[in-house]
Amino acid sequence: MKALVRSVSLSAVPVLALLCAAGCAAFRVSTTDVNVEDRQHFGSTYDYTDMRFLTEEVAREIIASPFLADQPAPPIMMIAGVQNRTLDHRDLKALTDRIRTMIIQAGKAQFVNESRREELLKEQGYQAAHSTPETQVAIGRQLGAKYMLTGSLVEMEDRSKRQVRVSKQQRNYYKLTIEVTDLETGLIAWTTEKEFARQASLPLIGW
Questions:
Q1: Where are the alpha helices (DSSP H) in 44-113?
Q2: Is 62 exposed, middle or buried (0-12, 13-18, 19+ CB in 10 A)?
Q3: Which end of the chain has fewer CB within 10 Å, C or N?
Q4: What beta strand segments (E) does 31-166 contain?
């Protein structure tokens, strides 16, 4: 009997060592670089890959649009923001910032820095009080925007009804609308819509 117990104990040592090693590995920090171009999703909701896809689609379309092609010079625009009409908080400024960057890099438009107006005024006030006339910028010479870029991101969610199944289904639909409005006339000079939907299977047991 003692020999049997000793045999079982000795055979359990490697198993315990393996479990201990696995447990230690579970608490070890691990990092991996991810290709941001890869559109892999871990759920049905809006993520950074969708932001990249939508901004590229919108920027590509407006850059190639007759609206900008017919302008005698790159017009001055401002971004008033994109309205969040989704079920969660979304950083939609990242979306408009990327659209603006791509349009500027294409040389198709100029943008006033509306989000930094307070800092601009503070710097102009400082220069007026402390800088020499030769180096200070001329106050009141900021250019006004001719067009305003706005939009909205809409989300609709649909979940499978209560029934006996291994997992439940969740489907999310998104539509991004971008508009460019002529600030002088109030007319919409250009607009586009981009939409996508994604479905995910959610296990009944999990985190």
A1: 48-63, 66-69, 93-105
A2: buried
A3: C
A4: 76-85, 110-111, 147-159
